[in-house]
Design a protein that fits this description.
Chain lengths: 181, 191
């Protein structure tokens, strides 16, 4: 038995390394991650309404059925994006995720304090390239920097009672994300 | 003999390493959890500080975490006594909730799918639920219809309850949130 002690210990050390490497790289190799599932809904840089989850089909697991959701899967490699989200009478939120599903920014209708949330989404390089014009750098313009060129904008509106569902769906269809320039 | 030892080391390494990763990404992260009764939240998973286990778990499930500035999700897979949530029992969720602009309570199967039922009732939100006069909630998950706030459990032997608090105070996501009140979960009339 002692003859196997060394290879066993070496094996467990190797196992620890394998575990660390596979855990760290899993977001890069997971083929059915949220980005892949959402990208199938349609082309990038367009807002898509996510079909309501049902017991037999759901775009993503564990979505909150009390909400109507829309998504803009984005690719900033050619241009920055302008994102407009109409808020509803109840709760509306916008959450930003990187290509690998990391939530890097979120805000809701109260925080935005306007009937329509308007913002610009760009990479750090695109922001650095903005002209130093006073009008453009006005404080009322909300600029969000995406850590990755690709990512997900998730728009969610609460449906407080079932009868309001179609009204809120119609409101959500007014959401847009479009390349600037 | 030497080659054989190297092969053993390689086999042990690959099997234990991949096995550990598989288990860890199925169970979820234990880092930075906030535990209140049967409810567990991972506030950090909705931020850029999400730990590698949380990232791996969400990537594998294909799920998006709730951004912390949006809300916080508390997940329960067991009752207060530690028994797993069994849809064949009456599962009573009762008590007060932490302050939030809105909350929703949803029931899923272990794979994160909604539970099939004729009423299309998958949960409640704070605007539609019938509150008790003492500002507490009382929701029963049961296979058969009943009065009050009922969520059909479809008689599934394993359920997951997720309570999401939207626009909740920041302190709830920190460790100091331990004092927050969450509803109790009890199971009765199990078969």
């Amino acid at each position: 038995m002692r003859a196997y002690a060394l290879p066993l210990i070496a094996g467990l050390v190797l196992g620890g390394l394998v575990h660390i490497v596979t855990t760290l790289t899993m977001p890069r190799f997971a083929s059915e991650d949220a980005f892949a599932r959402l990208a199938r809904l349609g082309p990038p840089n367009v807002v898509q309404i996510i079909p309501d989850s049902t017991p037999s089909q759901a775009t993503l697991p564990r979505m909150d059925p009390a909400f109507l959701s829309a998504v803009c899967v984005y690719d900033l490699s050619s241009a920055a994006l302008r994102v407009r989200i109409p808020t509803t009478a109840d709760y509306t939120s916008v959450s930003f995720y990187t290509r690998y599903g990391l939530a890097y920014y979120a805000l809701n209708d109260h925080a935005a304090g306007a009937r329509t949330i308007e913002l610009q989404l760009m990479t750090p390089a695109q922001r650095a390239a903005l002209p130093e014009d006073e009008d453009i750098t006005a404080a009322d313009r909300l600029i969000i920097e995406s850590p990755t060129a690709e990512g997900i904008v998730m728009i969610r509106a609460l449906v407080r009672e079932r009868g309001l569902r179609e009204t809120i769906r119609a409101r959500l269809t007014e959401a847009s994300c479009s390349p600037i320039g | 003999m030497r080659v054989f030892n190297v092969l053993i080391a390689l086999a042990v390494g690959i099997v234990s390493g991949l096995g550990l990763t598989w288990l860890a990404s199925a169970r979820g992260s234990n880092f930075g959890t906030v535990q209140i009764g049967a409810w567990t939240a991972w506030p950090k998973s909705g931020t850029v500080e999400a730990d590698p286990y949380a990232r791996a778990t969400f990537a594998r499930a294909g799920e998006l975490p709730l951004g912390l500035a949006d809300g916080i999700a508390f997940v329960a897979t067991t009752d207060d006594a530690g028994a797993r949530l069994d849809g064949r029992c009456d599962i009573r969720i009762e008590g007060r909730l932490p302050p939030a602009r809105y909350w929703t309570l949803t029931v899923y199967d272990p794979r994160g799918r909604l539970i099939d039922n004729v009423a299309d009732r998958y949960g409640y939100n704070s605007a539609e639920i019938v509150w008790r006069p003492d500002a507490a909630i009382e929701i029963v998950l049961a296979p058969r219809a009943r009065d009050g706030n009922w969520i059909p459990s479809g008689g599934r032997d394993r359920l997951i309850a997720v309570l999401r608090l939207y626009d909740a105070p920041v302190g709830l996501g920190s460790r100091s949130g331990d004092a927050a009140e969450m509803p109790a979960i009890r199971q009765e009339y199990c078969p």
